[in-house]
Write a structure and sequence with these properties.
There is one protein chain. By secondary structure, this protein is mainly α. Helix 2 crosses helix 4 and helix 3 crosses helix 5. About 5% of the residues have low confidence.
Length: about 120
């Protein structure tokens, strides 16, 4: 059985999640996450992600599209980045690709506390 939540109930949950993400502790991480997402939209980085994702035996995921709700979008954004962590490591260690990643994004990707 599935439980249906009426539209205004779903909207309320979405607003609560939005407030949760705006807390200082979460906002710092999400700002970094947004910067990495912006980097991932760069054509060259996207090509690198696709190349590194499809040429290894690891079970990695590609980038995700935004969802319909704040909660779904943030959850997808964070989940996809976590699944791409090894791919980001590969890009950072590859002479062909590492120059396409800014110094600020490199520091985030190398920061274990971000992950």
């Amino acid at each position: 059985d599935t439980m249906a939540i009426p539209g205004c109930g779903t909207h309320g949950i979405d607003l609560i999640c939005g407030d949760y993400y705006e807390l200082k502790e979460n906002a710092d991480v999400l700002k970094k996450c947004d910067n990495i997402t912006t980097m991932m939209a760069n054509t060259k980085i996207r090509q690198g992600i696709e190349k590194k994702t499809h040429t290894t035996d690891n079970n990695r995921e590609g980038t995700g599209k935004p969802g319909n709700t704040r909660w779904y979008s943030r959850d997808t954004q964070i989940t996809k980045q976590r699944h791409l962590r090894q791919t980001f490591d590969d890009l950072l260690n590859d002479d062909e690709w590492k120059n396409y990643i800014s110094a600020s994004n490199k520091s985030v990707l190398l920061d274990d506390s971000y992950w």
